[in-house]
Amino acid sequence: MGDSALWVKGEYFDDFDAVEAAARGSLDRAAQPILFDRLAWFRRTWEHCPPGVRPLVARAVSEKAQCWLFLARKEDLSLTALASWYTLAFRPVFSGVADDAMKLRLLTAIAKRLRGTLKAHRITLSPVPVEDGSAKLLAVAFARAGWKVAQSPATVNWVARTTGLSFADYWKQRPGELRSTVMRKAAKTDLEIEIFQSFDEAAWQCYETIYEQSWKPEEGAPGFLRTMATDEGTAGTLRLGVAKLAGRPVAAQLWTVENGAAIIHKLAYVEDAAAHSPGTLLSAAMFEHALDRDQVSLIDYGTGDDGYKANWMDDARALEHLEMFNPRTIAGWFGWIRARLRNLVRGRRVD
Question: Beta-carbon neighbour count of residue 171 at 10 Å?
Answer without folding.
Answer: 16
